[in-house]
Design goal:
- The complex is a heterodimer.
- Chain A contains 13 helices and twelve strands.
- By secondary structure, chain A is of the alpha/beta class.
- Chain A has two domains: about 1-30 and about 175-210, no CATH class; about 35-170 and about 220-380, Alkaline Phosphatase, subunit A (3-Layer(aba) Sandwich).
- In chain A, strands 1, 5, 6, 7, 8, 9, 10, 11 and 12 form a nine-stranded mixed sheet that branches. A three-stranded antiparallel sheet of chain A has the order 2-4-3.
- The longest helix of chain A has 20 residues, at about 260-280.
- Chain B is mainly α.
- Chain B is about 55% helix and about 5% strand.
- Chain B is built from 25 helices and four strands.
- Chain B has a two-stranded antiparallel ribbon with strand order 1-2.
- The longest helix of chain B has 28 residues, at about 65-95.
- Classes of the chains: A alpha/beta, B mainly alpha.
- At the A-B interface, helix 3, helix 5, strand 7, helix 7 and helix 8 of A face helix 10, helix 20, helix 21, helix 23 and helix 24 of B.
Chain lengths: ~400, ~475
Amino acid sequence: MDRRDFLRTVCMCYGGLATFGFPVVNFARVRQSGRFVFVLLRGGFDGLAAVVPYADPAYRAVRGALAFNTDELTTLDDTFALAPGLAPLHEFWERNELVVLHAMAIPFRTRSHFDGQAVLETGLDRPIGSSDGWLNRLLQVMPGERSGIAIASGMPRSLVGPHEVQTWSPAQLGVVEDAYLERLATLYRMDRELAGRFEAALQQQDLVGEEETARAGAPRGGITPLMQAAARILRQNNGPNVAAVEFSGWDTHANQGVAGGALDRLLGQLAEGLVAFRTEMGDAWSDTTVVVMTEFGRTVRPNGTRGTDHGTAGAGFIIGPRLARSAVIADWPSLADNALYEGRDLRPTLDTRAVLKGAIAGTFDLTAAQADRVFPGSDGVRGLYEMFR
Amino acid sequence: MDARLRALNRFGLGARPGERSRVGDPRDWLKAQLTGDPPQLATTPATATEIADALLALRRAAAGGTDQDRAEARRRLMRIAVEEQRTALTERIRSGRPFVERLVAFWSNHLCVSGQSKLPVVVLAGSYERDVIRRHVLGRFEDMVLASARHPAMLFYLDNYLSIGPGSPAAQRGPQRQGARRGLNENYARELLELHTLGVDGGYTQDDVIELARALTGWTIAGLRGPAAAAVARGRRRARQQMQERSDGSIGFVFQEVLHEPGERTLLGRRYPQSGAAQAEAMIRDLCHNPATARFVARKLVTHFVSDEPPAAAVDRIADVFRRTEGDLRAVSEALVDLPEAWSEESRKFRTPQDWLVAVLRALEIPEANNRLAPSLRQLRQPLWSPPSPKGYGDTTQEWADPDSLLNRAELARSLARRVGRQRIEPRRLADVVDVPASDPLHTLLADTSIPADERIALLLASPAFQWR
């Protein structure tokens, strides 16, 4: 009996009893169309170093040693340009598949990574320790057959909640006997808290396929291999509709550099990963949306160590063919001294929830009322629904 | 519930077969471990001077060496790092005072440094745990935090070694760079408030972060004529000339008056006159005595040793001991043992990957860490001294019991068992390390000789019973 047969047996025998609620793949039911990937850049990535407001009169003076030369940038419009590392994203821009967001922030003012990530990932307007994640709420609200997956080490907060989700990360898997896993499964079924998790693990193994796992290899912290692996999972006919991916390394307190510097190289990896993701998705790209966000922006002025400290508003991206057109969406507050938030940060003029509501509604054809349910308490924040076709 | 197994697994690092019969009274067994000096490591893999030499060699190679020089310098650093990790993990595997080792790991994670992105931290992390955490693990909290503030690993990790007072003599004399706010880096000050002492809800403001950061300017690293000193003093020749060097050439803490922000500071409404290094030291001591710190630390300890949802009464009791004893960690640790909630039938904690793997090696009576251990911890997503953020690793079921991790453990258990299978361990003997009723199917499986012995060992190690402590 190979792994696949064994899993089918598990489904037949125990699927109906599964307490974990993992959605057993059933080919007769219709999978909800649309695919959504939430890419979280943990650490607070510097929006001003990624999407450069080169035409802001204060830019050069206020950024000092961290200011780019205009001729190194990829111009988007008469105000904004992409940093050198992000140049590959221009390909999306030309196909009307890129919306750039700027002066955007979570609705809660904090410079704590942990509070900031909590607010962004729970989708609430303040950090609440016990709340579920907004991607999980999205899975609860969406109609049809749907599932979610974390492409991450561990379960990101955004996916935590009652709708069961899977996790996947590339591991150097040793060869194990199906009989061993089967015996373990009988032990795990006795443990109320872990039973469903173990069963979900076995099913997830089956979904990715051992061949795919082997091919994905073990990315050494690189963004591209992980994005490619994510695409191989998402592009399947019965693949998940919602995925959370995360990357860290954005907390650039020192020596973040300019063109070719430490941060720009990281941005280059991000852009390369996003392009590779689209390639790997193949035909499935046509109903896919990728959103890239971070918990907060960074200080406008460089700090004393050629880096930037925790700030407020920053930049983000939406990428996908269902967008109406490429655009920079920013109610630009200016970098002039008197315009800065608390005299140091980019002033927020756009709520992350307005963007996310627009993105999920556009990807899954949700109503505004459904989108509001994903972000409780956000009724007063109008979703940017016009971003999508 | 077998209280002896609870002591061995919940407060210790995992039972060995037969060990429970030697425990006696479980609470006495744990408290006895807290007496005397903290356990010392068998060997010291590298002295501060050796570490400094290795870092300087890398700096020289990076500045003007060949590829081969750079590779050699890197290898030298990695050799120290690997040796440090092996020594620390071996202590966890063979320790006769496993409760103290758990406390070392807890505080090391609370005041964590991470080698994830900075090479100097990779090589200094072992010395950090040894000289900051282990030394004070049964001492006073404030002494541990102060030692942490002064250790080069922390000064590197959260950037304080680079921070310069904007009004300091060094900044005033240096060339003016257009538009740059000169000198301050608030990274360490913020995490000191948010993660090490008061907690995020501890009632401080952005102004407090900046005031603490200003007071901490000048707390930097000596003995590094390489990257650190150059970055600090680049373009500030006179400042560099005034920088003190340690007479023995070792790497270590130094207070540089020329980098220090002059003036009186206000933190949490209290005023601190200018007194050089004593200014920030007074602030840190006051932060450690703040009632918010007692609550924050108590909650974290109870979460670690009792429950993912720490009972309020237990948190109050620990916070009270912490306050009353002014952060006496021996007294606080004893109070943890005395919490009735830690011994209740319902209470259980999911083992973190590190604790699981160490428990596996103790159960198999493997005498020391080998070089397969570090890669295994990476595969389990909890490499030693490399948490993804200054918050350290979490320790709740939510964070570690995801489906993928369970499968990872199952596969790792299987391959470990294959390797030890040749040593003829009797699988049924291993049942002694977990608390499962006689009716549990695990016993049937362990006794089923139609299953290969090494697979039965793996079943025990990967079983749900072994995942809990």
